[in-house]
Amino acid sequence: MDSVIANGKPVAAQVPCSLETFLIAQKLLPRSVVVEHNGEAVAPSEFSQRQVRAGDRLEIVKIVAGG
Amino acid sequence: MELNNEEIRRYSRHLILPEVGLAGQKKINATSVLCIGAGGLGSPIAMYLAAAGIGKLGIVDFDTVDYSNLQRQILHTDADVGRSKAESAKETIHGINPNCEVVIHNTRISSENALDLIRPYDIVVDGTDNFPTRYLTNDACVLLKKPNVYGSIFRFEGQASVFAPHLGGPCYRCLYPEPPPPGMVPSCAEGGVLGVLPGIIGCIQATEILKLALGKGTSLVGRLLLFNALDLKFRELKLRKDPQCPICGDHPTIKELIDYETFCGIVPEPENNGNPDEVTVQDMKNALDNPVLGIKVVDVREPDEYEIAKVAGVSLLPLSELQSRFTELDPNTQYYLHCKAGVRSMKALAFLRQQGFKYVKSVKGGITAWSDEIDRNVPRY
User: Fold this and answer.
1) B157 and chain A: CB distance < 8 Å anywhere?
2) pTM for the whole thing?
């Protein structure tokens, strides 16, 4: 399986696929994460069209609410 | 407003900074900030802003000080336990800088009062601890065009940003259009938080507020700053305004405040009769006192929590291991599951039901309710 670099670490993934599909495969809620793709900001409404390819760099942050 | 001699001495280390100076200090003194939440984040925010000379500080908090707050909520002292957080905060702030006008709002911020609470202030800072209040704060700030200085924390990690669609940046909903389903993201009460973490994130929020007041530097608008205390690393994500955002996008669908509890999937608990999947701590006591009933009680908390507080006669099977170890349980036995407060035991219940367990109940209020209602010797944590 190919891999992408998520938060600096290689992650095996069935790519190419949409960012939304990738997030769901990683057991992440697409509406509850912030993603930067190859250094670019991505709005949540673009997740389903944005294509993730082998070797891409993703920074992913999960929502937290504590204060 | 001119600074008097006492103020010139008090703010001297600001006055000699070329980026602040007398003109900048006057701007700080003329700025009003509404701090929503006087807890972990609210503590350093309110204390540093008051010390820095923010002219008017509003504090919104309906809660009272609890012992479990003192590990991080430095606005409050041991002697304040049981007092209103807003009152306690006012006293601490006044002790730091009596020139700071403190307005306390000893109330729960809601869709009914949020716009009126926020309107008189220049800047809002989000130091809340739950999703409904974060979405409410965001929406009210977007509607009123107020900068919303955001921070949130969990365990060893924190995030901060400045949301200001009216200044060209994104809002909270551009990042997180919808809240996670209830119970999916644990709170600090469930997952814990390192005591100094809100100190670090809160100080970043206070820094951003002072920069907004001064109109200096590069703000966190359009950036999400992340901090990890274990690795002691900062990283940063670029953010963008989402044209599809339901409140600040090109075609907004939210034009007034909504019901945020419903939006976040929080259903008000019915009185008394409650949920048929739940039993009370009294039922759990009956089960433990009368083995003849054949009801087994299982604690689904993590082992570290079990070490802190446990009930005799209860076996431990952490929720994190349930998927791999549920076969240790008998699908035909009746189980009462408990956790700390009743959320994780409901998740464990849902999982076991899927595996064909018919006779499983969740103990409402968990070991916290046990400590309150059955045995005070079991520590609350």
Assistant:
1) yes
2) 0.83
